[in-house]
Amino acid sequence: MMRKNWKAHITLWVLLVVAAAAIPAFGGSAVVGSVAGSMNATISGQALLPNTTIFSGDSLQVKEGAAVVAVGSGSRLVFGRETEASFLRDANEVTVLLGRGNVSLYRAAEGTGLRIKVGEVSILPAAGYKTLGEVALLGGTIVVTAKEGKLRVEGNGPAVEVVKGKTITLARPARGPQGAGSGSAGVSGSTALQIGAVAAGGTAAVLSGVAMSRAADARDAAAAADATAAEAIAAGEAAEAAAQAAEAAAQAAEAEAVAAGCALNDLAVSLGEASPYTPPAGYTCP
């Protein structure tokens, strides 16, 4: 009995050692979420496909398209065109390190925690609210817009809350932490137009991606139709040319037959016989 217990203890100890050794290997591969849809996007240099799993440390690049990432239960991230970002995951939340472009975030009141970081500035949904918001980089400016709920902006200095329907801008110095900027009322006309463009592009990223996909399909279908039409036209022209050639050949053959018949008539006349050949309508013997 003691020998069996000794073997059981040894086996358990080995399993614990193997499990402990495996923890560091997977520690840097925490799952961030999965891809719900994408167009013209890559993850860590590879084409981004639906249902691809996103891991902590992965880097996302979107060109002329969009990407939608489902994060945990009830949270979504929508990345607009010309956007670069990377991901970090810890036990409590997912952090998006935004390098350029724009991202829309949705978080249910009890969904997975989300945080958008631009340098030292963090933007995150306020606790207890269903939140829909957008974060964009416009040159050296960070633009934060709350569509639903509240967004909390943290950085160097007191935190700022952005409530539903409001937009704030923050300076993004080349070095050092960023400070909170003024409300949207202080934004210049040209910057306001840019903010409007980013807002429209962020919330409609998925729809624009679908539209671009459908447009590409329509272009392919039109090209195929053009090719088919060209082939049909070419075939029709070839058939018409063949018909014309056949008609010309028939006319030539008929003319030769008439000439031969008329020659027989000439021979018969020279022999004092009746003409054996009568030309068809439209033809006469000389």
Counting DSSP E segments of at least 2 residues, the number of strands comes to 15
Total helices: the number is 3
Q: What is the CATH architecture assignment of the domain at 29-203?
A: Sandwich
Assign the CATH topology of the domain at 29-203: Jelly Rolls
Order of helices and strands: HEEEEEEEEEEEEEEEHH
User: What structural class do you assign from the helix and strand content?
Assistant: alpha+beta
Poorly predicted regions are: 6-28, 175-203
- The span between the termini is 132 Å
Quaternary structure: single chain
Strand content: 35-45%
Account of the 3D structure:
The protein is α+β, with helices and mostly antiparallel strands and 286 residues long. It has a domain at 29-203: Jelly Rolls (Sandwich), CATH 2.60.120. Helix content is 37%, strand content 36%. It has three helices and 15 strands. It has a 15-stranded mixed sheet that branches. The longest helix has 66 residues, at 205-270.
Question: Layout of helices and strands, plus pairs?
Answer:
Layout: H1 2-27, E1 31-43, E2 46-47, E3 53-55, E4 59-71, E5 75-79, E6 83-89, E7 93-100, E8 102-107, E9 113-118, E10 121-125, E11 131-138, E12 141-148, E13 150-155, E14 157-163, E15 167-171, H2 189-203, H3 205-270
Parallel strand pairs: 7-9
Antiparallel strand pairs: 1-2, 1-3, 1-4, 4-5, 4-6, 5-8, 6-7, 8-11, 9-10, 10-13, 11-12, 12-15, 13-14
